[in-house]
Design brief:
461 residues, globular, Jelly Rolls, 6-stranded antiparallel β-sheet, Spore Coat Polysaccharide Biosynthesis Protein SpsA, Chain A, 3 domains, 23% helix, 30 strands, alpha/beta
Length: 461
């Protein structure tokens, strides 16, 4: 059995302002209403694979759960990383989990932020590599290059026609001249960061080449515990793990590294210009997401989160408009979006971290407006879900039901509210909301008071 392990960490800062720390690029529904995370999960919904092991940030736990539920996928396990770490620790954790379930297990390690359009070609490459992995080799998948791209690492593969061939060298991201030379010489592929290996082979490789890291990860896994649908890891032990990639930790040290070259029409979508490349375009090369209009413009990208975006008389320009931020940039400067994000981080701007929509165990909230002593947000409560019993020291709240029927409890008094009905929650009152119905409840909440941050919550059981 192949256990797919989907790595859903990362921030995707070059896709700001849509991608943020609390809702990064792999969770953005940019492709037919689905996210890259969801597409990755569906890619391995195949008889040869188990349910996926998902490893991601503790901050994204409800987002991962929500998106898995939307596509009807049940995870084999969801491991929550307390802080961000590179790919080596997750590769070993996945091997340990799979080995516990099946001593002969194979693991397919997949980033969650890649777009693969020829999924049948990719899956066939994985199936063709099974025998090599069962034989103890660690297989990396190399993408047949279509251009001298300097944003990827390269792998030099032994000459031949076999579906899996020995790795001769791993090469760092090259400059343009070297990348052009690689394509002219042949035998080089892009390093996609996708691996297939037996759980036992990866465990043995860590014991041999990274014994300290092996012991540290084993300690983390021994202390794991279940919390609802998630597996939590000890924050102190996890923070001590080396922040190192699987390439540096293992692949460049072992003698049994092999590569499966494949051309599945692949992109890692690391910038807005890359997004433009893969989207459908009009006759003038323009791509619009949301309510976008183009006039006398060519090769532009416009993303409209809520409001209409019109692009007039421009060429090769990107306009990304969310409810609280707007990015305008030339496509040639797409990589520099990260520099803007770094500046905003230095200034302590919340737009880097916080998306207007925040996912909760019971649904989500979405910020509408805020000012001095007030905040307005919409709330969606999923059927059967209930908020914790709580009170606030510094704010009062007013709820207006937009759709559905909700049970409200204020200081022990419970009653039902339906569309266009409202309730007032005085400062200090104990209150909760419960959706007893079969459809989502949507509410507009108005908060007013001297302090409106999320940490003004006292929970009462």
């Amino acid at each position: 059995m192949i256990f797919p392990c989907i790595l859903s960490g990362g921030i995707g800062s070059r896709l700001w302002p849509l991608s943020r720390k609390d809702r990064p690029k792999q969770f953005l529904p940019l492709f037919g209403g689905e996210s890259l995370f969801q597409k990755t999960c569906k890619r391995v919904a195949h008889p040869s694979f188990s349910n996926p092991i998902v490893i991601g940030s503790n901050n994204h736990r409800f987002l991962m759960g929500e998106q898995l539920a939307e596509i009807g996928t049940e995870a084999e396990a969801i491991l929550l990383e307390p802080i961000g770490r590179n790919t080596a620790p997750p590769a070993l954790m996945a091997a340990m989990l799979a080995y516990e379930k099946d001593k002969d297990a194979l693991v397919l390690l997949l980033p969650s932020d890649h777009l693969i359009r020829k999924e049948d070609v990719f899956l066939q490459a994985v199936l063709n590599a099974q025998d090599a992995a069962k034989g103890g080799a660690i297989v990396t998948f190399g993408i047949t290059p279509t251009e001298p791209n300097t944003g990827y690492g390269y792998i030099k593969v032994a000459v031949g026609t076999e579906p899996v061939r020995p790795v001769e060298a791993f090469v760092e991201k090259p400059d343009l001249a070297r990348a052009e030379a690689f394509l002219a010489e042949g035998g080089y592929v892009w390093n996609a960061g996708i691996f297939l290996y037996s759980a036992k082979a990866m465990i043995d490789a860590f014991k041999t080449h990274q014994p300290d890291l092996f012991d540290a990860v084993a300690g983390v896994m021994e202390g794991r515990h279940q919390d609802l649908d998630f597996i939590r890891l000890d924050e102190e032990k996890f923070s001590d793990l080396a922040n190192i990639s699987i390439d540096y930790a293992i692949m460049e040290k072992i003698s049994n590294a092999v590569c499966a070259p494949v051309a599945p029409d692949w992109d890692d979508l690391g910038s807005w210009s890359a997004i433009w490349d893969v989207l459908d375009k009009d006759a003038d090369g323009n791509s619009g997401l949301g309510d976008a209009r183009f006039l006398d413009s060519t090769n532009c990208l416009a993303y409209a989160d809520r409001n209409l975006v019109s692009v007039i008389g421009l060429d090769d320009v990107m306009v990304i408009a969310t409810s609280d931020s707007v990015l305008v940039a030339h496509k040639d400067k797409a990589q520099d979006v990260k520099k803007v994000v770094e500046q905003l981080e230095d200034e302590g701007r919340s737009e880097v971290d916080v998306h207007p929509r925040l996912y909760k165990p019971w649904g989500y909230t979405e910020r509408i407006n805020a000012g001095d002593r007030f905040s307005v947000q919409s709330m969606m409560i999923k059927p059967g879900k209930k908020l914790s019993l709580q009170s606030h020291l510094h704010r009062a709240e007013h709820w207006v039901v937009v759709s559905g029927t909700v049970e409200i409890t204020i200081n022990g008094d419970a009653r039902l509210l339906t569309e266009n009905q409202s309730a007032y929650v005085p400062l200090g009152a104990q209150h909760t909301l419960h959706n007893p119905g079969k459809i989502p409840v949507r509410i507009i909440e108005v908060q007013s008071g001297t302090y409106l941050n999320e940490d003004d919550i006292l929970r009462h059981g």
